[in-house]
Design a protein that fits this description.
CATH class of the largest domain: Alpha Beta
Helix content: 25-40%
CATH topology of the largest domain: Aminopeptidase
Largest sheet: 8 strands, mixed
Shape: elongated
Structural class: alpha/beta
Number of domains: 2
CATH architecture of the largest domain: 3-Layer(aba) Sandwich
Bound molecules: zinc ion
Radius of gyration: 24 Å
Number of helices: 10
Strand order of the largest sheet: 1-2-4-3-5-16-6-15
Strand content: 15-25%
Number of strands: 16
Order of helices and strands: HHEEEHEHHEEEEEHEEEHEEHEHEH
CATH superfamily of the largest domain: Zn peptidases
Length: 388
């Protein structure tokens, strides 16, 4: 292929992205996608390792005498959503859809890979990490558990997400705590069921659960500094089968979002105390299941500044701005718990929201997002990345 991201190459990348979109694969099932990724990278001269974290791929390219190393990550998994876009390249797999644009992230990183291999205009080591199971299954943690950073050492790690509502091709950065930690908490309220006409002979878990839901509304408002951010959501209540039967138990399913370990721990402690005490006041008891969740994502300000300077240099100040911290979660947080780096956002334009059946990734942003990765590699490895 010819020069840097010309129309012919951009059309080829858009076609590749649409091909991935037609063939969505869920967490740890990204077999076709990872095979395609590995084949392309090998063809461009990368040293490619497969099977890291199930379907994960790591591609390395060493050039020049530089001792530095940088990793860039793309996610490959789709979601269990039935697509409703009606587009010509809509999902061909019932009940699966690239509704978060990971088809786009994968294509952007492949476009950058081809350009890095073609120009070899950097000195050091580039590692491209294509991870499975971002949406569900903590693919980042599994890659780390399987020796990612021992086998493929890097100085820093970067990732990006497309962002609906931000102008197409604009770049957004968040310094410090950027994306929330999320934990699941399941509270089972245990009572004693019976006839709906004889409540005095029962311990009604429905009433106790309702009281717990209302009391939980005070966890954030009465325990967390108003200048901090946290969310407690009861997203599901399951219990009972008939209007005239008091059930034995009711299950509440909660998510808790926070940005610091201190606030996370405080919220969890309050939830457990409220659930237990509320249930007890009705004569009921609780069983609580609280597995470890996704950690908060915290951008290292110095490494975030390197990326911001690359975006400023390539695209100018009109296309670069800050975002406030986001209450959504992202498993890139696991990587940043081990390596310094940053996670940033590129505008997807006025598209439907992420995880919506109407969403589609905007192919018009592939070229500039790939240019950004190539520019970041050069800036980072040159050690001349501007003021940090
Ligand atoms: Zn996503």
């Amino acid at each position: 292929m010819s020069g840097e991201f010309d129309a012919e190459r951009l059309a080829a990348y858009a076609a590749l992205r649409q091909h991935l979109h037609r063939r969505p694969e869920l967490a740890y099932g990204e077999h076709e996608t990872s095979a395609l990724v590995a084949e392309k990278l090998r063809g461009w001269g990368f040293d490619v390792a497969t099977g890291i974290g199930g379907t994960g791929v790591v591609a390395s390219l060493v050039n020049g005498p530089g001792a530095g190393s940088i990793a860039i990550r793309a996610d490959m998994d789709a979601l269990p959503i039935t697509e409703a876009t009606g587009l010509p390249h809509a999902s061909e797999v019932a009940g699966k859809m690239h509704a978060c644009g990971h088809d786009g992230h994968t294509t952007i990183l492949l476009a950058a890979a081809e350009e890095l291999a073609r120009t070899r205009d950097f000195s050091g080591t580039v590692r491209l990490i294509f991870q499975p199971a971002e949406e569900d299954g903590a693919g980042a943690q599994r890659m780390i558990d399987e020796g990612l950073f021992e086998r493929f050492p890097v100085d820093a790690m970067y990732g990006l997400h497309n962002w609906p509502g931000v102008p197409a091709g604009a770049f957004r950065f968040i310094d410090g705590p950027a994306m929330a930690a999320v934990e699941l908490i399941i509270i089972r309220v245990l009572g004693r069921g019976g006839h709906g006409a004889k409540p005095h002979l029962t311990v009604d878990p429905v009433v106790a659960a309702a009281s717990i839901v209302m009391a939980l509304q005070s966890v954030v408002s009465r325990n967390i500094d108003p200048s901090e951010t946290a969310v407690v959501t009861v997203g599901a209540i399951h219990g009972g089968i008939a209007p005239n039967v008091i059930p034995d138990s009711v299950e509440l399913q909660l998510t808790v979002r926070s940005f610091t370990p201190e606030i996370r721990d405080r919220i969890k402690a309050r939830i457990l105390a409220i659930a237990e005490a509320q249930a007890q006041s009705f004569g009921a008891t609780t069983e609580i299941f609280a597995p470890p969740g996704y950690p908060a994502l915290t951008n290292d300000p110095a490494h975030n500044a390197i990326a911001r300077n690359t975006a400023l240099r390539l695209f100018g100040p009109d296309r670069v701005a800050a975002l406030p911290p986001l209450a959504v979660s992202e498993d890139f947080a696991y990587f940043l718990a081990h390596k310094p780096g940053a996670y940033l956002f590129v505008g997807n334009g006025a598209s439907a929201e992420l995880h919506s059946p109407a969403y589609d990734f905007n192919d018009a942003i592939i070229g500039d997002a790939a240019r950004f990765w190539v520019g970041l590699v050069r800036d980072f490895l040159s050690g001349n990345a501007g003021p940090v």
